[in-house]
From TrEMBL:
Keywords: Hydrolase. The gene is sixA. Gene3D superfamilies: Phosphoglycerate mutase-like. Pfam families: His_Phos_1. InterPro entries: His_Pase_superF_clade-1 (IPR013078), His_PPase_superfam (IPR029033), Mito_Ser/Thr_phosphatase (IPR051021), SixA (IPR004449). One of its GO terms (molecular function) is protein histidine phosphatase activity. GO terms for cellular component: cytoplasm. The keyword Cell membrane does not apply. This is Phosphohistidine phosphatase SixA. Signal peptide: none annotated.
Length: 160
């Protein structure tokens, strides 16, 4: 299965709580660029999950509308910071082996998940806001994980 690790786009610095921070106008543009790039790359997500935080939900909604995703956006607590990669993978394990799965989350957890797959240090990995990585993961052969690509927002802009 291809896992698309996606960092939420730029959010407001202040809100009633961290969980309620909404995307800024810049963030909405970043999310549209992300969705348009997914469409241009012919990525057809089978599932789209987002952290319950508002900025991740909004990023997922814009990604869905601009990439052509027609399914339901599912809220996944395991995409919040502080959840281990094995706990996240346990939720995904029942999905079809060839599923294309979008995961909209946050730093530093996205870097930690990517480092887990690459057996590296999360300190060396940083996702741009609105950036993404694609990892191939086979739940039956988890040691055969492969990084397919890792792109910054600037590179996504150049694709569209």
């Amino acid at each position: 299965m291809n896992l698309y690790l996606i960092r939420h786009a730029t959010a407001a610095k202040a809100a009633a709580s961290d969980e309620q921070r909404e995307l800024t106008q810049k963030g909405r543009k970043e999310a549209r660029i992300l969705g348009e790039a997914f469409a241009k790359m012919a990525i057809r997500l089978d599932y789209l999950y987002a952290s319950p935080l508002v900025r991740a939900q909004e990023t997922a909604e814009i990604l869905a509308s601009t990439s052509g995703y027609r399914g339901e956006i599912l809220t996944l607590e395991e995409l919040k910071n502080g959840v281990s990669t094995p706990n996240l993978l346990q939720v995904l394990k029942p999905l079809e082996e060839d599923a294309e799965v979008g995961l909209v989350g946050h730093m530093p957890s996205l870097a930690e998940h990517l480092a887990y797959f690459l057996q590296g240090s999360p300190d060396r990995l940083s996702f741009d806001k609105g950036g993404a990585a694609c990892v191939f993961w086979d739940p039956n052969h988890p040691q055969e994980t492969q990084l397919r690509w890792f792109v910054r927002q600037e590179q996504l802009r150049e694709m569209i």
